[in-house]
Amino acid sequence: MSKDGGQNWRNVTPKGIPEWTMINCIEPDPHRDGGCYLAATSYKNGDFRPYLYRTVDYGMTWTKITDGIDKEHFTRVVRCDPHHPGLLYAGTEEGMYISLNDGKNWSPFQLNLPIVPITDLLIKDENLVVATQGRSLYILDDLTPLYQMNKAVNQTSYLFAPKPTYRMRGSQRKDLKTAGTNHPAGAMTYFFIKEKMDTVEVSLTYADAMGNVIRTFSSKSKQDTLAVKYGSNLFTWNLQYPDAEKFDGMIFWAGSLSGPTVVPGIYQVTLKIGESSQTQQFEVRQDPRSESTPEDLVVQFDFIKEVNDKVTEAHRAIKQVREIKKQLDQITPALKSVEGTQEIIKMADEIKQGMSEVEEKLYQTKNRSNQDPLNYPIRLTNKLAYLNTISRAGDYAPTKQAVAVKVELSSKIDHELGLLKRIFEEDLPKFNAAYRALDMDILETKFPNTSDGPK
Questions:
Q1: Which of 75, 297, 314, 376 is 20 to 30 A off residue 258, Cα-Cα?
Q2: What span, in angstroms and rounded, lies between the C-alpha atoms of 243 and 309?
Q3: In this structure, is residue 455 part of a structural domain?
Q4: Residue 228: which CATH number?
Q5: Residue 256 — left, alpha, or beta (φ > 0 → left; ψ -120 to 50 → alpha)?
Q6: Are residues 32 and 102 in the same domain?
Q7: Domain edge (last residue) among 230, 261, 289
């Protein structure tokens, strides 16, 4: 080893290493001048003991650092974490070890890794890449919980700050038997709960940098459910806003209701357990392979949100229509037995017919299975939702044609909603007045407001 640019060299072989020992790995310490680690093996001499050493003085002295490693797990590689001083990883003939205190002692770090020789290690973007002999490559996706471990000690609960997350597409299957598992697409959120929380609500709320809530997942929610267990938990948020409204039995053909994906920037997540809460910030980054500008992504976000808002407006109106029709169907049979109600029955039938005509323009009511759209043409909300499908396929702004189609379809939907609004504000009050004259209960005729339904 040289301290003077190679002008003078000296032998720095650590004392205690047997003759003919092979030096498998030399790892400079990125956090300390003069620091270095090495891993050696002597198994070809029938010696299966681990040999790991550390120096802090350019090799003048070496310290053996193998406490905690099995006496027959000979070492092949040692790596120092570039982000966290004192965090070391060691690969042996029979698996992985980790040290949180610069090698003073080691603990097994096998997790779900098979027992296999570890020939090399690499820390890349806060992920640990493991090269094995005979079992291909493995990747431990996120090392940040290890970096924050000291903060979580002695806490009854702790929310780890998520690592920077890239906007990327892809899917993940966890039931594969013959292939690796893809990296999850989204913000990986780790949290720890020391005690069981069977009766207390636990939630994760994601918000933008200003605190505006995007989405909340809760252990008490049936829709945005958060699965919680005692100990360590991992939840992956897909970086999407809430989906557009849907209703029971709805069948779409290639139309998407998925919410828009957040644009790159700073976001925050809050873990709430009962009345206590913790908040951490994290960054969402653009896919480095994308050629789009940040402005393109904002335009894409706004476009998909506008599409979903209009679909939601129409679908909420359809749900209201179905509720009113259901009430009318319950009322009219009883009216037929009352003398002088022919006119009010006729009003009910006309109201139902008018609402049905609007509903059938907005949505294909004949669909009963996923293949039915082959026989029954899709209607306005399905067509508009298809713009969501094609516009979220990549990181780019919508095309001029997509914008033109959105304007056209939205205008047609607004026309139908206008007809429906007239029925709610004119025809239903007349029906209720006639119905009230019979000293019977009236229908709920309140038309949804701007945020809940058609304008």
A1: 376
A2: 10
A3: no
A4: 2.60.40.1930
A5: beta
A6: yes
A7: 289
> 289, 304, 328: which is the final residue of a domain?
289
Q: Output the CA torsion sign for 297, 299, 304, 305.
A: positive
Predicted confidence at residue 171, as pLDDT, reads 80
Range of the domain at 430: 294-436
Q: How many CB atoms lie within 10 A of CB 222?
A: 6
pLDDT lower than 50: segments of the chain: 1, 9, 450, 453-455
Question: What is the number of domains present in the chain?
Answer: 3
Q: Are residues 101 and 157 in the same domain?
A: no
CA dist list (Å): 336 to 22, 72, 329: 98, 91, 12
Q: How many other C-beta atoms can be found within 10 angstroms of the C-beta atom of residue 226? A: 19
Same domain, 255 and 302: no
Sequence-distant (6+) residues with CB within 8 A of 165 are 186, 187, 188, 239, 282, 283, 284, 285
Q: Is there a domain that residue 454 lies in? A: no
Model pLDDT for residues 131-184, shown as the tens digit of each residue = 999 888 999 989 999 999 888 888 999 999 999 999 988 888 888 877 778 888
- Print the SS3 string covering the chain: CCCCCCCCCCCCCCCCCCCCCEEEEEEECCCCCCCEEEEEEEHHHCEEEEEEEEECCCCCCCEECCCCCCCCCCEEEEEECCCCCCCEEEEECCEEEEECCCCCCCEECCCCCCCCCEEEEEEECCEEEEEECCCCEEEECCCHHHHCHHHHCCCCEEECCCCCEECCCCCCCCCCCCCCCCCCCCEEEEEEECCCCCCCCEEEEEEECCCCEEEEEECCCCCCECCCCCEEEEEEECCECCCCCCCCCCCCCCCCCCCCECCCEEEEEEEEECCEEEEEEEEEECCCCCCCCHHHHHHHHHHHHHHHHHHHHHHHHHHHHHHHHHHHHHHHHHHCCCCCCHHHHHHHHHHHHHHHHHHHHHCCCCCCCCCHHHCCCCCHHHHHHHHHHHHCCCCCCCCHHHHHHHHHHHHHHHHHHHHHHHHHHHHHHHHHHHHHCCCCCCCCCCCCCCCCCCC
CATH number, domain containing residue 86: 2.130.10.10
pLDDT tens-digit profile of 289-344?
A: 999 999 999 999 999 999 999 999 999 999 999 999 999 999 888 888 888 889 99
